[in-house]
Amino acid sequence: MSTKSGCGTDRLSKTLNDYLGEIVKTILASGGDVLNFAGDALLALWEVERDQLFEQTVLKSMECGLKIQENCHDWDTSVGVKLRVKIGLAVGEMHVTYFGNDEDSRLFVATGQTVDDVNTAEQFAEAGSITLSPTIWERVAEKDDFFHEYLSDGKHVRVRSHRGDLETLPAMSEGGRKRNQPTGTNPNQERSPSLTRVNKQGIRSFVRRLSTVVPGQIDVGSLVNPTSTLPEESESDEDEDMEKQTRCLNKIFMFDKGCTFLAIFGLPGDKHEDDCAHALQCSFKMHDKLKATHSILKVSIGVTTGKTFCGVVGHKYRHEYTVIGSKVNMAARLMMHYPGKLSCDSETYHHSKLPRHLFHELPYREMKGVKNPGIIHEYVELSKTLSKPEASASEHKYPLLGRDKELQIFLDELHLISEHREKGEHRRVIVFEGDPGIGKSRILDACVQKALEEEIRVISCDLTLNDSGTPYHTVTTLIELLLEMDNCANHVEREHAVLDHIVEENLREDLALLNDLLNLKFPSGPKITQMSSNDRAEGLHRLLVAIVHQQQ
């Protein structure tokens, strides 16, 4: 895309901000405020003190909605597309919960029955009108002053216009203060309530904007959707997990998809080659943690990869950095159509370069607004208990070329291992390092083939970034696979598996050396309890060598 002014993303940004700016300006001028932007939607609030009457504020919010429809319905853009808006209104108490920290980020989420009511009202809404929840319609004293109709449920009401002239809304001055605006309500000031749960009573407005999308600069978007409000302990955990790997937990909101987190990987200036893998692995950790959290009924995560517009949207007094685009919408659709799963699109599956057995193909489902979604996969990050201990040589259509030097190094080490097999004195690790796509997996397949031709047993396991924090994870995994401990549910079953494979009595006397490594509880005899740390390490090495040789 061209970066010239008026072209590409700059043109899109101006189009979005002109449209959103008009909506936000109308809300501020009517005494309301904007709480959240979320993709193509925003949540506005008209706050009411308990000792005030609701009717006047209800009428203000309705007049604002009708004014937005009057000014923003069939909005012409410079790109030849008309924009429309749907509006839902509800009234009642709302809870605002703040969490996070000042060092990384502080976010808030608005929850409560009123938020649910305004979501429902928006789903009944049509472009060109406003839809009222039953609770707010009850507050309208002069119902006949509006052209209205009851909807299919017999409760929600659609209002198309006022029978008379709408009340003239106060104009905005250049400084951002409305004329005759009371002191302390300057829309140019930041909202910064204390970090507590706040109950507010007022009118909620859910405004949804329909817009076109052009490619932008974002790489990966991830949406998380637990179906109940997060407890405080899980809020901080998920914030910490996402910040560790993304540095951008963009927002949290309670719109039509429940309590939803939007996390972004690969923002401009913070791109990494393995962003797709990080997104999946971070999502898997969150999925596991949230499922284990009390009171959370279901967790759904959608991960998508692609280019999307990212930037500041809104009005000069109320704006937010956000991401908008088809891939963000698709992540939300994945959550809705594959509930309870960690699902991803074909681009994420391909660019993650993670082992293919960590994915399960999901059935095709039509998704609103998503054309040709491709093959959808579930990321399962199988634990080592499901790994296959016996490696087999993969079949390739073409021979391996240009890797004779690397293969010869491997064969030399393999022969040395064979010559020193009884003593286990030759210990060497060979690491193949290179850029993604250079052929590391291909040369590993060739090494497996060579080892099998030499009649050497090969045991393999796949590791992920999430395993890097576990000491001796690779050694533990390989030994567990060798001794067929991978399906054991507790330490008793694990100990039986060890005894089934180790029959020599002299080896059984030292099995307590395996306790820390394999999570066992074999009793320690006087011989082991009197060992020094160095003696224990040497004894464990001799025991492991003997176990490996015995299993050949």
Please provide a written account of the structure.
The chain is α+β, with helices and mostly antiparallel strands and 552 residues long. The chain folds into 4 domains: 1-168 and 195-212, Alpha-Beta Plaits, CATH 3.30.70.1230; 213-381, Nucleotide cyclase, GGDEF domain (Alpha-Beta Plaits, 2-Layer Sandwich), CATH 3.30.70; 389-461, no CATH class; 463-552, no CATH class. Helix content is 34%, strand content 21%. It contains 16 helices and 19 strands. It has helices spanning 8-29, 54-72, 113-124, 134-137, 232-245, 275-291, 326-337, 346-352, 404-419, 440-453, 473-482, 491-501, 505-508, 515-518, 526-529, 533-550, and strands at 33-38, 41-47, 75-76, 82-83, 85-101, 105-111, 130-132, 146-150, 157-162, 198-209, 220-226, 249-255, 258-265, 299-305, 309-314, 319-324, 342-344, 359-361, 377-379. The strands form 4 sheets. Strands 1, 2, 5, 6, 7, 8, 9 and 10 form an 8-stranded mixed β-sheet that branches. A hairpin with a 3-residue loop joins strand 5 (85-101) and strand 6 (105-111). Helix 5 runs antiparallel to helix 6 (275-291). The longest helix is centred in the first third of the chain and has 22 residues, at 8-29. The radius of gyration is 31 Å and the shape is elongated.
